[in-house]
């Protein structure tokens, strides 16, 4: 908790380096802030506990009331600190039952503006994924619990803790009568865990109003690669593929019909198998050629990243990675494309030995994409490749390939002032911590299951 909070404060300070007005970074500002934080540590953790206790599970429309309740609580906290809030309507969703319900609104907030200061907009979300004790939680997921100096609770890191850290950072500035070095805006939603319905449309609609004066957006909603603090400077994009192979009109019995016709499942297995080899290489022609070449500067970045391969192997029960080095593994996860096969709809997957021949199967896989791959180009390459493999099989069945989601990859410039501020923030926060007795709280907020 305090780790986030200190980092938040340092980012605020760092962001002001371009404005001339404040004594940015000086210990005259920092000392009282740090003292305030240390003095209010218990209160901050208690508030996080109150937030975690609100079961804001966005995957279940029946729980959206709780999502809205927490958005209200968030808005109230911002208002108490002098911020202006607005609940932006993002439309409705039709449920499986046919009923149409209003989505939880998106909370937009801002504070008094000083034209001389840069404006920072902070994104966060207050919803969570479902969590039940039976899922493997050692403690009650909605009861924030400290175990060996770590705090466990659903949403504690993702994303309630970070959102609260920002609010507490503002509180610390105000309580110690320090001038905030930046203008602040917040965009807080309650549907992140189910795909942020309506958010993109809202940001488009407000591009010339709410977002028009925003210089930087900060997203503090990601995991660290190790127990060391980390800044995310890019994420891979993703396209999801559905490969449908259709044969006869009904499922058939292998004892009666097996052997006399081409089964859709064999076609599908061949198609899926043509996508990737045993070394993890994607076999779709042309796809790897778009990948931005690795620069020397970028290669060096990976050398300093802390990632204990042996420890991770043990933790995950993996005895062999496809790459031999730490750098190789991380690059495979972050800066090269990957292809994962997720499932086959229509396949027999229950226990036991049913002798069915499925009439229609849909293979599902996705490709994680990196700069400079274009989702539309990838889609075309994959479709052409699958069609070619299928044609070679001279199958009488029909093939249809469709896609959803075409999130583009992005990578940020590490020399951007915001990253420079972020780096400074993490380092200073860390230093300050190490000299205080709450060192054990440094890495305090963890959830015991990942989303
Ligand atoms: C949230 O606050 C609004 C008023 O701002 C109120 O109408 C609504 O009932 C509240 N929702 C919940 C779930 O508390
Ligand atoms: C939360 O857990 C603590 C023990 O860790 C227990 O004393 C407390 O009653 C629990 N609270 C709720 C609301 O279940
Ligand atoms: C905002 O969106 C409108 C409509 O899509 C577009 O015409 C305009 O160029 C956008 N403005 C900015 C600042 O991006
Ligand atoms: Zn999140």
List keywords for this structure.
single chain, 451 residues, alpha+beta, Aminopeptidase, Alpha-Beta Plaits, 5-stranded mixed β-sheet, 4-stranded antiparallel β-sheet, 13 helices, 17 strands, 35% helix, globular, binds 2-acetamido-2-deoxy-beta-D-glucopyranose, binds zinc ion
Topology:
Layout: H1 2-15, H2 27-39, H3 41-53, H4 64-80, E1 84-88, E2 92-94, E3 100-102, E4 106-110, E5 119-125, E6 145-147, E7 150-152, H5 156-175, E8 183-189, H6 199-205, E9 216-219, E10 234-235, E11 237-246, E12 252-253, H7 254-257, H8 264-273, H9 296-303, H10 309-316, H11 326-334, E13 338-345, E14 356-357, E15 360-369, H12 375-392, E16 398-407, E17 410-411, H13 417-434
Parallel strand pairs: 5-8, 5-9
Antiparallel strand pairs: 1-4, 2-3, 4-8, 6-7, 10-17, 11-15, 11-16, 12-14, 13-15
Notes on the structure:
This protein has 451 residues and is an alpha+beta fold. It has 13 helices and 17 strands. It has a five-stranded mixed sheet with strand order 1-4-8-5-9, covered by helices on one side. Strand 2 (92-94) and strand 3 (100-102) form a beta hairpin. Helix 1 (2-15) packs across helix 13. Mean pLDDT is 88; it is low at 17-25 and 435-451. Bound molecules: 2-acetamido-2-deoxy-beta-D-glucopyranose (3 copies) and zinc ion. One 2-acetamido-2-deoxy-beta-D-glucopyranose binds next to helix 4.
């Amino acid at each position: 908790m305090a780790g986030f909070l200190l980092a938040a404060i340092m980012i605020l300070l760092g962001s002001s380096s371009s404005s001339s007005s404040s004594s940015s970074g000086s210990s005259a500002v920092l000392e009282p802030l740090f003292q305030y934080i240390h003095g209010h540590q218990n209160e901050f953790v208690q508030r996080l506990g109150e937030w975690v206790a609100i079961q804001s599970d966005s995957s279940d429309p029946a729980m959206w009331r709780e999502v809205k309740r927490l958005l209200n609580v968030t808005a109230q906290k911002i208002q108490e600190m002098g911020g202006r809030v607005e609940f932006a309507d993002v439309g409705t969703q039709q449920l499986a039952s046919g009923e149409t319900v209003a989505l939880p609104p998106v909370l937009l907030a801002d504070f008094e503006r000083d034209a001389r200061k840069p404006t920072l907009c902070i994104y966060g979300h207050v919803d969570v994924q479902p969590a039940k004790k039976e899922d493997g939680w050692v403690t009650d997921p909605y009861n924030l619990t400290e175990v060996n100096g770590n705090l466990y609770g659903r949403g504690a890191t993702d994303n309630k803790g970070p959102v609260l850290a920002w609010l507490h950072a503002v509180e610390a500035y105000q309580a110690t009568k320090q001038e905030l070095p930046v203008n602040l805006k917040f965009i807080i939603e309650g549907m992140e865990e189910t795909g942020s319905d309506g958010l993109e449309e809202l940001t488009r609609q407000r591009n010339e109003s709410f977002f028009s004066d925003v210089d930087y957006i900060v997203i503090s909603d990601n995991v660290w690669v190790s127990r060391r603090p980390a800044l995310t400077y890019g994420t891979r994009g993703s396209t999801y593929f559905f490969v449908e192979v259709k044969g006869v009109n009904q499922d058939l019995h292998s004892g009666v019909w097996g052997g006399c016709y081409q089964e859709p499942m064999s076609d599908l297995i061949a198609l899926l198998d043509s996508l990737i080899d045993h070394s993890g290489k994607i076999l779709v022609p042309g796809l790897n050629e778009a990948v931005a070449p690795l620069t020397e500067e970028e290669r060096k970045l990976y050398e300093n990243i802390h990632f204990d391969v042996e420890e991770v192997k043990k933790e995950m029960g993996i005895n062999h990675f496809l790459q031999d080095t730490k750098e190789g593994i991380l690059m495979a996860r972050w800066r090269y494309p990957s292809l994962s096969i997720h499932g086959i709809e229509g396949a027999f997957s229950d226990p036991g030995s049913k002798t069915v021949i499925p009439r229609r199967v849909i293979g599902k896989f996705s490709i994680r994409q990196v700069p400079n791959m274009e989702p539309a180009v990838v889609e075309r390459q994959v479709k052409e490749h699958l069609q070619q493999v299928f044609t070679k099989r001279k199958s009488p069945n029909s093939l249809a390939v469709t896609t959803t989601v075409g999130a583009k990859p992005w990578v940020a410039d590490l020399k951007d002032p915001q990253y420079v501020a972020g780096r400074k923030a993490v380092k200073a926060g860390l230093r300050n911590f190490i000299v205080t007795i709450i060192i054990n709280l440094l890495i305090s907020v963890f959830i015991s299951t990942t989303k």
